[in-house]
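Thread: "does anyone have the structure for this chain?"

Original post by V.I.:
We have the sequence but no experimental structure in hand. Need at least a predicted one for the grant figures.
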Amino acid sequence: MGKSSLIQVLLLLKQSSDKLKSGTLNLNDSEFIALGKGRDVFYQYSEDKHITFALENEDKISKIWNFEYHADRENLQSKEQHSINLLKKNFNLFTDNFQYLNAERIGPRQSYSSSTSTIESRKQIGSKGEYAVHYLNVFGTSEKIQSEALHHPKARSRSLIHEVDAWLGMISPGTKLNTTAVPGTEMVLLDVQFETNLDFTNRFRPVNVGFGISFVLPVIVALLMAKKDRLIIIENPEAHLHPRGQAEMGRLMALAAQSGAQIIAETHSDHILNGVRVAVKDGDLPKEDARIFFFDRKTTDFEQYSYVTSIKIDDKGELSQYPPNFLDEWNNQLFKLI
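Reply from O.Q.:
Generated one for you, C-alpha cells below.
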C-alpha cells in the first residue's frame, strides 16, 4: 500500500548521507536497504523522468532533490547538492541520534554478535537488532533511564537492564535477562530466567523459550534508548506478540515519544494503535504529538497509486475518521458469526 516505500525514502537518504553533498542517491546499502537499480524504484505510470524527495522540519526548513531516472544505474544523480553538516543541523535523520529496526529482526540465537563502533560510537543496535544483546552487556547496568515516562514502576532500578526486564514482563511475566561476553571472541551470550514465588528458575537459552522474547527485545531496547530529537523507525513492532503485548508495545512507543523522541512505526496491528490511543486518553502523550496515516491502494483506468488518509486522535482517544478497511476487520468477521 506504500507504507514501506515511505520508510524506504528516509532510509535511502540516510544511507546516502555522505554522497548527498555531490547529489548522489545510493540505492544499495548493506546496513539499511538494497533496492536494486533505477527501474526497480521508478513509478511505472510517471510521465516525469525524475524521482523527487522533499524533507521539511518543524521550523519549515526544507530540502529537495530531483534525482534523474536511469533504468540501469544503482546511483542516481541530482543537481541539488546539500552539505551534510547543514543536513545534520536541520534533520535528525542524518545524525547518529537515529535507530532503524527492520521487519526481519534477529531471532533466538545460541550467541549474538558484537560491534563496539555501533553501540559505543553511534549508540545504535543494528538495523536487525543484532547488537541489542551486546548493548545490554556493555551498558545494561551503567546506563540509567532518565525519563520519568519510560521508567516502569516494577523495575528493580532505573538501570537499562532492569527497565528492559520490567517492560519485557508486560509481554512475558517475570522475565529476567542475563548477558555474558565470551572471552577471546566477538560473541555475547544471552540467557533467560523466570521468576518463581521464592526465586528464579534455571537459566534457559533463547532458543528454548518463546520466540517473541528474542524478537521483541531489540524493539524494547530501542524505545528505552529514546531521548530528545532521536529518530526511531520500527517496522512491524507487533511481530510475534500476543494482543496484550501488542497493546503494551503501543503504549511504550507513546511514552518514548513523550520523552522527546520521534517514533515512526509501520504496523498492521489494531492493538498497537489502540495502545497509543489509550496512552493519549490517559494523558501519557499529548494528542498533538500522535499522528496516524492510513495507506490504501487506489486503482483507476490509468494508474495505481497509494492514497494516504491523515487521522487525528482527540483527548479521549477517539479518531477523527474511520476510512474503509481501517479497524473494521474485527466487526466484519463478527458479523459473519452472528
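V.I.: this helps a lot. The chain has ten helices and twelve strands.
O.Q.: and The chain has a mean pLDDT of 94.
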